[in-house]
Each structure stands twice: as C-alpha cells, then as structure tokens.
C-alpha cells in the first residue's frame, strides 16, 4: 500500500468550481482508495491504494471529478517520499521564514530550466525562485498576493501541457505529515 497526496488545481476559489471535500472523499472511496482524508478546502486529498502509479491515479481522479461534478480539474498525485524530498530540498531557509513567504509550485512533469532562462531575476528582488525536482520554490517576502514575480511566472504560456499547482509552505509541510507511514 502506498499513501499519496492528490493536489487539485483551481477548485473552491472565488466561488467557482465548487467541489465539497466530503463529496470528494466519497468519490475517491468509490474509486477503491482507502484512508481518504482531505486537507483544507483548496484541494488536497490524501489516500492509500495498492494499484496504479501517480500519473494514472491523477488521470483517473480527474476523469471521475469531471464525470461527477461536470467540470474538469487538473490533478497531480505524489507519494510521501517525493513530498518529503521536496520539503527537504528547499533552497530557502524555511525555518526562518513565515509560511506565507514561501511557496512550492508542483509540476506534473519535469520542466526544462530554459523555460525560465529569460527572467531577469534581479528585476524582482528580493523575490526569488529556484527550480527543483518537478517543482519550483518561490520566496515572496511580502506574500503571494503582492508578488510581482509570482504574477510574471503565472503569465508564462504553457506550451508543454505540464500541469502546475502551488501550495504555501504550511500545506507543503502538512502534506508530508499526512502521507507519512502510520499517519
């Protein structure tokens, strides 16, 4: 049995694409997953399963959500080992920062560094970003809502079909905890 976190992109934001977490748990249990739990209303579910791999589990959940709720949702699925490695590899001093200052954008596939090569990093200081293993770490000292770098990064055209979804540092750490063996 492997425990995974499903990261749903763009649900329950601004009153649109409403997906009640109780209904998501029921849906996922109906797909045969066990130990289904959700975290917050912004689209994190933790579950255990014996079958499939992360990409196939993400595709299955995305199809099931569209069938049940009538709208498509991008889903990224990651296991505990990956989530823990991302948290441990953070290039910024997470313990010294407020959670609102640090974010991780998870990608569904590797992203080539040259996709971000044209960014003039000095123009956004003190904000910074670093690429990791299928993720991007963003340091925004004044929070995501005021981040000019986050706005610029989100405006990048996605010509690769790679799904991206961001979480603040509190959620990053909580997902590591929730997917840990015995949690």
Automatic annotation (TrEMBL):
Superkingdom to which the source organism belongs: Bacteria
InterPro entries per the UniProt record, alphabetical: DUF1697
Signal peptide: none
UniProt-recorded name of the protein: DUF1697 domain-containing protein
Species assigned in the record: Streptomyces pluripotens
């Amino acid at each position: 049995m492997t425990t995974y976190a499903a990261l749903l992109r763009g649900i329950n934001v601004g009153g649109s694409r409403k997906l009640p977490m109780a209904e998501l748990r029921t849906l996922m249990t109906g797909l045969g997953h066990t130990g289904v739990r959700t975290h917050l209303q912004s689209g994190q579910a933790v579950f255990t399963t014996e079958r499939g791999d992360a990409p196939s589990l993400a595709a299955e959940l995305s199809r099931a959500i569209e069938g049940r709720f009538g709208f498509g949702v991008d889903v990224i699925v990651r296991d505990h080992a990956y989530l823990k490695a991302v948290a441990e590899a953070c290039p910024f001093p997470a313990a010294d920062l407020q959670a609102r200052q640090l974010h991780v954008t998870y990608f569904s596939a590797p992203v080539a560094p040259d996709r971000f090569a044209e960014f003039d990093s000095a123009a956004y200081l003190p904000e910074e970003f670093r690429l990791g293993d299928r993720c991007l770490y963003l340091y925004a000292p004044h929070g995501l809502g005021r981040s000019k770098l986050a706005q610029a990064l989100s405006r990048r055209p996605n010509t690769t079909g790679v799904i991206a979804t961001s979480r603040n540092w509190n959620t990053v750490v909580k997902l590591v905890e929730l997917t840990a063996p015995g949690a």
